[in-house]
# Entry
Amino acid sequence: MTSMKATPEPQADRSNAERYLRMYRQMVRIRTFEEQANQLYLTARMPGLTHMYSGEEAVAVGICEALTDTDRITSTHRGHGHCVAKGAEFRSMFCELLGKAEGYCRGKGGSMHIADQSHGNLGANAIVGGSMGIATGSALRAKLFGQDDVTVCFFGDGATAQGLLYEVMNMAALWKLPVIYACENNGYSEYTKTAEIAAGSLTARAEAFGIEAFRVDGQDVLAVNELAERLVARARRGEGPFFIELETYRYHGHHVGDINRDYYRSKEEETLWKTERDPIIRMRAWLVEQGIAAEAEIEAMNAQIRKDAEDAVAYAEAAPYPDPSEVDMHVFTDVLHATRIGA
Amino acid sequence: MPHDVTMPQLGMAQDAGKIVAWLKKPGERVVAGEALFEVETDKATMEVEAQAAGFLTEVRAAEGEDVPVGRVIARISETPQEAASASAAPVVSATGPGSSGPIPEGRAVTMPQLGMAQDTGIVVAWHVAPGDKVAEGDVLFEVETDKATMEVPASAAGYVAALLAGEGEEVPVGETVAILSDRMPDAPMRRTRAEAGGTPLVVQPAAPAPAAPAPAAAPPATAPAIVRPASTVLPASAPQGRILASPKARRLALERGIDMARLVASGVSQPVHARDVEAFIAPASAPASHRLAAGTLRDGFTPFATWAAETAGITDATALLAGFAAASLRAAMPATGPLCIAVTGRGADRVYPDPDDRLGRTDPAASPMLPALILRDLRGSRITAIEMGTDRAPVLMVGGRGDALTVTLVWADGQLLADAALALVDGFAGRLEEPLRHLLL
Amino acid sequence: MREITLSQAVNEALAEEMRRDPSVFILGEDVAEAGTPFKVLSGLVQEFGKDRVIDTPISEPGFMGLAVGAAMTGARPVVDIMFGDFLFLIMDQLCNQAAKTHYMSGGKLNVPLVVRTNLGATRRSAAQHSQSLQALVAHIPGLKVALPSSAYEAKGLLKTAIRDNNPVVIFEDKLMYQDKAPVPEEEYLIPFGQANVKREGRDITLIATSSMVQVAMKAAEALASSGISAEVIDPRTIVPLDEATLLASVKKTSRAIVIDEGHQSYGVTAEIASRLNEKAFYHLDAPVLRMGAMDVPVPFSPVLEDLTVPTPDRVAEAARRLCAGEMIHAA
# Structure
């Protein structure tokens, strides 16, 4: 694995200082959130499983910072990063992870189905590739209604093995839909190397449908953001769809219980990515070097984010569960309690 | 602020981990991310990293010990000193509210988590007693879980300082059931959970209850709209065994107090349906009634009753009349046993038991009885002819004014045989005409 | 009253709803110029344009997924699934996504889409084009299921389905597209969860869905000449199911047969029969019978295919034996 410094770092545009700081902040928020979630699992305080996004922050942040609240995204089982990057806040997220009533989905979705409709997040999906159709359908709706919002479909390299991807890319290309397919290639499809499950090139797949495809270093938030800004603008003008392959890495296992990883991934490889290609370390260094923020400032921001996260966890742990009567609510929009029909 | 070091959840199906080795000593400095201890899980031995920086203190689990996931096994503190209250063998918190007597200090032996779905275990038997010396690996007690009985060994050598649960008691996972001390205890003790005031759990059968067959939100079945009769007639098991009948048929039979076995015995074929039950209870038309009448030439009874009153002190003339009726009935049906006559009319409404026994001297019955004959005394009334339906017993009516009396008998099919009816009427009329005949007949 | 075919009724329903609400659009294979192989949608693309009557590639999972996403973000798609058998292809998008999104989001996201598909055998189309799979989707919480039995029901139920904010699967009997029935000119909707008593009777209740309603009606006529008075009820929707009407009828007659063209085992008939058992037990004078398609893949040969579906004769025979108190299944 060669260490990449793909493009020379751009010079900071002083007027964009706020934006750069916000990107950094969002990445730290995601990393901090995941650390807390991981702890919740290890200390047996969280029901079920979850999938850590740590290491991939620049992908979600770089792209979502190019989107507005009315733009939509669809997410994956590894969805906390997208959720935070699209504007979600800690308390409601932790509540959802713990199955509490104040969660984004009233505790009914959990980590793998977390959705935040108010910020355009159409939801994480537990079916690999399950949300590709939904993202493309959202773009279809935008085109049919003459609306100018763009939909980004996040999915992993493993999901390129799903037939649905090719069906929806075909239709997106046929009808020139405003959708951007963002493939988070972290090198592994669960416990198997990507090279062993995906033949040929990922970008070539999109190009076969006549869709413009791009590759970018997923650990470089500025590069990701710059590309995303360009493509989102073009998609809004009706020039879509587009495909981006982002080279990235997940630090944790496939899910939080995947701790014995040596058999499919070496510790050396993990350490390399964590030290030499960490998106947060890299952005931090750049912010300081460009004079946008001082170390102490950044340190304080990080500490505050950590505290926010800890407070949010405490809040969520103390928050109430949904009332048992909610178990059969929200099955249908027009039936209050589904299991009492025709009783 | 000290950071708790817990036994981590390392695999989906893992409930406990065995500490293979501590990689740091108590009091040693620890860096965040440094390997702190090694854990053996189902699959492999793994290193667990420290989640904070500081000094390792309050180590509460030893190498070789199985620790349930989530249990705090040490702390990473700001200084190397142990907390003042902590000793090499950490203090055990009191187990139940209101524990009786002081609980010795020592290492806690807890009810282990032995299965994923197990929340409690039953202490089947203790293999040690208070004061015993135990070596590492010695069996302390046997636990019964959903699946099997398992032995729980001592994780280190020591002395049994306290036993805190009784044999047969159900103990939640994680609760302390015994205390082992390093040195011979001064006052080894034992008690049960129940004595400690902990909610005593009834020893339950090992198998967990299967999932309830009805979903929790199932609506209650609408109550069947039947009224159960006070005496529930349950379908008796027929000689051949179970009777086959539709639910509707059974309900109808129950409502109407019909014994299914009787139904089937009467020839109804199985499976019994609703129409079979409906047909069975429809009553046949009212039983046929019969009537017989007789007349007397003169009223011999009234002067006889007067004479009986003057001479023999027989004041209840109605008893006399009932006696004649009873005698006539007995003469007509010699096999008759004890009987009683109900008399109505002329202000009387009484039942006389065996009034022919001590003629004229029988007291009316205090409580209601089923009469063999109902006597309607209509003498002196203006009623000359009666057409009344049958009653629960044959009805004998005496009417008439002045010299002649009339006797009418009405009875239903099955109440009297024809010959008996004739004899009854003739005999009764005869006694009324000539009371002395009573002596002969 | 005028009479129109089931095909015309479906066409009218769609046209009316699309005129009324611009967010309604159709997608599926050959729905535009071709109007589908059954010609049900002919003329719609001419009126509403290719943006609202969209021909898709042969990508059922794909365009079903698109419909879910469009519905989640404000549109009201009507998906045409050419044969009911192809439901298997869209199960993930329909049952894992569409059915569960409202629930999984705690009530925050709606999926107001309609899947229009069909059922019915005896068309000599063999095993993969003849299935009646309503039980499959009725089993999934979050989906409503409608089963029109004539042109009248088809129009009223489809209009209701399009206006419903939940995902609805509506099955048309592909053999009935040319069958006429009286259909009012004025607008009408048939609410979900409202069964229709098609024929009143005293001795036995015949509950039949979709293609089986006519079978039950013919059986009832035959029974009348045997002196047996059969009541025929069409539930019209199985989710939601109008239990009250079914129960009232069975309490009156004390006997029932449930007839559906899904397979005999593990199907719609089993569910309805079970509910009658639970809630009308003490009124039953005979076991509730199920009559469905034989538990075999649909055979091609006409002689064999015709053996596999309930017919008026078989229904009438079963009814006669129940009324006679015969133990049809030896205890």
Q: What stands out?
A: The first strand of chain A starts at residue 72 and ends at 74. Chain A has one domain: 29-340. The beta strands of chain A are 72-74, 151-156, 179-185, 188-189, 192-193, 212-217, 242-247.
